[in-house]
């Protein structure tokens, strides 16, 4: 049963990573179009806002996928000096702290998104609502917490960390 949940987590992280990649591609195209159009005519209206929104989606949605591939910095200098069981315990403990942190971040970001939703806050130039992008970051934090949670469970069961197929 847990294997099904792990495969679902991997699928979610991959899907979010595809969306993050599309957002990054749109950022590149928008920046290039803005530079060219600025030189020959007028710049793209709202470029700064769009780059911020797309950047939030890119950063938030890439968190879980990065954790799957161990792309984040991990400091294990102290851990390797302990015996195997102590290393497992310390790894699980640090993972638990990280998981709680990202759940907290997701919760606070979600609350902020609801606050912006209630205010009906929009961007100045284009009038785009802020809250969907804030919710995107909250979802990215949840995906990160999900991967860390499965890593903790795998560590405690003596298995390798979660890896995509």
Structural features, described:
This protein is mainly α and 165 residues long. 74% of the residues lie in helices and 0% in strands. The chain is built from five helices and no strands. Helix 1 runs antiparallel to helix 2, helix 2 packs parallel to helix 5 and helix 4 packs antiparallel against helix 5. It is elongated and about 65 Å long. The model has no long low-confidence stretch (mean pLDDT 91).
Defining key terms:
mainly alpha; 0% strand
Largest sheet report: none
Rg, nearest Å: 19 Å
What form results from the Cα inertia axes? Answer: elongated
Mean pLDDT: 91
Number of strand elements: 0
Strand content: under 5%
- What string, H for helix and E for strand, traces the elements in order? HHHHH
User: Terminal Cα separation, in Å?
Assistant: 17 Å
In the predicted model, the low-confidence regions spanning at least 5 consecutive residues are: none
- Percentage of helical residues? over 70%
Q: In terms of structural class, how would the helical and strand content be classed? A: mainly alpha
Looking at the chains present, what oligomeric state does this protein adopt?
A: single chain
Specify the number of helices: 5
Topology record:
Layout: H1 2-40, H2 47-61, H3 63-68, H4 84-119, H5 131-156
Helix pairs in contact: 1-2, 1-5, 2-5, 4-5
Task: Summarize this structure briefly.
The chain is built from 5 helices and no strands. With 165 residues, it is mostly helical.
């Amino acid at each position: 049963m847990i294997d099904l949940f792990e495969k679902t987590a991997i699928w979610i992280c991959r899907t979010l990573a595809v969306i993050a990649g599309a957002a990054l591609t749109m950022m590149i195209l928008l920046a290039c179009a803005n530079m060219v159009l600025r030189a020959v005519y007028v710049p793209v209206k709202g470029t700064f806002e769009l780059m911020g929104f797309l950047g939030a989606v890119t950063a938030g949605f890439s968190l879980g996928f990065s954790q799957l591939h161990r792309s984040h910095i991990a400091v294990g200098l102290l851990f390797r000096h302990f015996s195997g069981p102590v290393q497992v315990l310390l790894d699980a403990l640090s993972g638990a702290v990280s998981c709680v942190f990202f759940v907290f971040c997701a919760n606070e970001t979600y609350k902020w998104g609801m606050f912006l939703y209630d205010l009906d806050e929009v961007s100045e130039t284009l009038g785009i609502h802020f809250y969907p992008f804030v919710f995107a970051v909250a979802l990215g934090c949840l995906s990160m917490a999900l991967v860390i949670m499965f890593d903790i469970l795998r560590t405690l069961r003596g298995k390798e960390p979660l890896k995509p197929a």
